[in-house]
Amino acid sequence: MFSLQDTVSVVIGGNGVLGSAMASALAEAGSKVAVVGRDMAKAALVCEQIERSGGSARSFQADATKKSELESVLEQVLQWGGRVDTLVNASGTNSTTPFFELEMDEWDRIMDVNLKSVVLACQVFGKRMVEQGSGGSIINISSVSSEPALSRVFTYSASKAGVNSVTQFLARELAPHQIRVNAIIPGFFPAEQNKKILSPDRVESIMRHTPMDRFGAPEELKGTVVYLASPRASSFVTGAFLRVDGGFGAMTI
Does residue 227 have an active-site annotation? Predict the structure, then answer.
């Protein structure tokens, strides 16, 4: 039911804390995994860890905000694996700049990494899935800040709300091609992009709104990404948002 044998997965941002865990999960389920990131050394390290565990992976360098670089990666992936069955968009960045101090260069940078990269990757790799004619799965990484917006991270929240909209639009657009498009909504998983906002008072507030009273561990995203990638386990699931947040989204006061 959850086997990904004989499939090829592309994980954009696969060298990050959460992206690497999801890349490992796909490899453990039998998929050949293309780990794509700006930092080739980190991406290569993720691949080494996957291969030591018996999986198959290869690292590819690209700035996901540049379509030409993603197109180059696609060609390299096709030479290596022959096809694309799953795309995971896991690139992300954040900032705590207050709204009235926000400069447009920072707005553009966050929007480019968090939203533009998703659109471009879906264009490049999604088009290939359509051409293959055998369906596929696109998995976008959203955030609990996308609905409702989270304080102190204005641009990040706006970008992730955009990811939700893109996910639902493409779910409808690509359904005739049997390509499923869904999003994972992680709760609070300490990673590079959010360490700067996790002050003691912030952590206390997060825990008050998380019934499970703890942060998530990257490994706790593995089951969800494999489920959404599986053409059998989630064959009728598209346009969905799957929360992995310790109950954060269930809380009000």
Answer: no
